Amino acid sequence: MIKARVTVTLKNGVLDPQGKAIEHALDALGFGGVGSVRQGKVFDIEVDSTDKAKVEADLNAMCDKLLANTVIENYAVEIA
Amino acid sequence: MKSAVVVLPGLNRDRDMIAALTKISGKAPVTVWQTDTEIPDVDLIAIPGGFSYGDYLRCGAIAARMPVMRAIADKAAKGVTVIGVCNGFQILVEAGMLPGALMRNASLKFVCREVKLQVTNANTAFTRGYKPNQIIRSPVAHHDGNYFADADTLARIEGEGQVVFRYAEGTNPNGSINDIAGIVNDRGNVLGLMPHPENLIEAAHGGSDGRALFESALGGSSRQPALAGA
C-alpha cells in the first residue's frame, strides 16, 4: 500500500475571498501580523500498489483530470 | 426545434428549464441522464442549474466527468448548440468546453436577486434575437459565479467577441472579472451563463427578457452565424 498526500493550492494572482475572510477572522481573534492566508485542499490517498513510479504518475494524472482545476490551481504530490 | 435537458443528481432547475423549453418550442424536451452515452438528434442541449453532486470538490467538477458530458462534447464538436445555465455553466468550464473558471462570489455570499445584463455580442446563435448592447433583466441565484480567466485567455475571449453577456454597470453580483456574465466557445455554439433566462420567459414571471435567448438558440444549428467580434 502506498500512501500519498496531494496538496492543491490556488495559483498566485487568483483572488481567494475565503482566504481573505479567514485572514480577517484571525485578525479579529487578536493574532496580529498575519500578512496573508490562502486556502487550499489536502487529499490523503491510499493506492494498492508497490510501484512508486507508476503511482506517482497516476497521482499526477488524477490531479490533472479531477483533483485540481489547473486553470486556477497548482498541485503537489507527496508519497510517504 | 428539438431540445434535450440534462438531468443529474443535485440539479434543481431542470424542471424550470424543461418548462421554459416546452413553452417556447411547443414540444417537451427529451431528458438525458448522467450515465447516458448517446444523445438523441436535437437542435439544442441544455444543462440546467442546481448543485450537482452537492458541489463536492468544486462546483460542477464531478458532473463534468460523467459519461453524458463526453456525449455532449461530441455533439458540440458536430455543431449542436449547447447552453449551460448557472451550475450548467460551471459544468461546462470544468469539462473544458468553455475557457476560464467560476469561483466563490467575492462577497462570499449567495446572491439571489435580479440583475441587468448587457448583450455585448448580439451576433451569436444565442443572442441574435437581441439588439447589440441591449440591456435585459435576468434573475441570478448562485454562490460561485465569480468568473476568472488568466490574462491571455481574457484578452483572447474579449478580442474574439466571446463575451456575450456582461453585468450592466453597478449590478455585478459576484466580482466577476470584466463583469462577465456569459461566454461562448471559440466556435460560438456553446454558451455558459450564470443568470437564469429560463426564469423570465412569460408574464407570470414578471417579464420575458429571457425568451429571445431560447428562441434564438432553438432556431437550429444550421442557421447559426459564424462568431464575429462584438
From TrEMBL, chain A:
Write down the top EC class of this protein. Answer: ligase
Q: Which Gene3D superfamilies match?
A: Phosphoribosylformylglycinamidine synthase subunit PurS
The protein's GO terms of the molecular function aspect are: ATP binding; phosphoribosylformylglycinamidine synthase activity
Q: Which GO terms describe its biological process?
A: 'de novo' IMP biosynthetic process
Q: Which UniProt keywords apply?
A: ATP-binding, Cytoplasm, Ligase, Nucleotide-binding, Purine biosynthesis
One Gene Ontology CC term in the entry? cytoplasm
Q: What is its main location?
A: cytoplasm
- Reaction catalysed? N(2)-formyl-N(1)-(5-phospho-beta-D-ribosyl)glycinamide + L-glutamine + ATP + H2O = 2-formamido-N(1)-(5-O-phospho-beta-D-ribosyl)acetamidine + L-glutamate + ADP + phosphate + H(+)
Does the keyword field hold Glycosyltransferase? no
The EC number(s) this enzyme carries: 6.3.5.3
Q: How would you summarize the oligomeric state and partners of this protein?
A: Part of the FGAM synthase complex composed of 1 PurL, 1 PurQ and 2 PurS subunits.
Protein family (similarity comment): Belongs to the PurS family.
Function, as annotated, reads: Part of the phosphoribosylformylglycinamidine synthase complex involved in the purines biosynthetic pathway. Catalyzes the ATP-dependent conversion of formylglycinamide ribonucleotide (FGAR) and glutamine to yield formylglycinamidine ribonucleotide (FGAM) and glutamate. The FGAM synthase complex is composed of three subunits. PurQ produces an ammonia molecule by converting glutamine to glutamate. PurL transfers the ammonia molecule to FGAR to form FGAM in an ATP-dependent manner.
This protein's name: Phosphoribosylformylglycinamidine synthase subunit PurS
Organism of origin: Mesorhizobium zhangyense
TrEMBL record, chain B:
Subcellular localization, as worded in the UniProt entry: Cytoplasm
Active site per the UniProt annotation: C86 (nucleophile), H196, E198
SUPFAM superfamilies reported for this sequence:
Class I glutamine amidotransferase-like
E.C. number(s) listed in UniProt? 6.3.5.3, 3.5.1.2
* A matching Pfam family: GATase_5
Taken from the UniProt entry, a GO cellular component term is: cytoplasm
Pathway info: Purine metabolism; IMP biosynthesis via de novo pathway; 5-amino-1-(5-phospho-D-ribosyl)imidazole from N(2)-formyl-N(1)-(5-phospho-D-ribosyl)glycinamide: step 1/2
Which terms are listed as keywords in the entry?
Answer: ATP-binding, Cytoplasm, Glutamine amidotransferase, Hydrolase, Ligase, Nucleotide-binding, Purine biosynthesis
Q: Which Gene3D superfamilies match?
A: 3.40.50.880
Q: Which InterPro entries match?
A: Class_I_gatase-like, PRibForGlyAmidine_synth_PurQ
Q: Which reaction does it catalyse?
A: L-glutamine + H2O = L-glutamate + NH4(+); N(2)-formyl-N(1)-(5-phospho-beta-D-ribosyl)glycinamide + L-glutamine + ATP + H2O = 2-formamido-N(1)-(5-O-phospho-beta-D-ribosyl)acetamidine + L-glutamate + ADP + phosphate + H(+)
What are this entry's molecular-function GO terms?
ATP binding; glutaminase activity; phosphoribosylformylglycinamidine synthase activity
Is rRNA-binding one of the keywords? Answer: no
**Gene Ontology biological-process annotations:** 'de novo' IMP biosynthetic process
The record's HAMAP family line, in alphabetical order, gives:
PurQ (MF_00421)
Purpose? Part of the phosphoribosylformylglycinamidine synthase complex involved in the purines biosynthetic pathway. Catalyzes the ATP-dependent conversion of formylglycinamide ribonucleotide (FGAR) and glutamine to yield formylglycinamidine ribonucleotide (FGAM) and glutamate. The FGAM synthase complex is composed of three subunits. PurQ produces an ammonia molecule by converting glutamine to glutamate. PurL transfers the ammonia molecule to FGAR to form FGAM in an ATP-dependent manner.
Quaternary state and partners of this protein?
A: Part of the FGAM synthase complex composed of 1 PurL, 1 PurQ and 2 PurS subunits.
Q: What is this protein called?
A: Phosphoribosylformylglycinamidine synthase subunit PurQ
State which gene encodes it: purQ
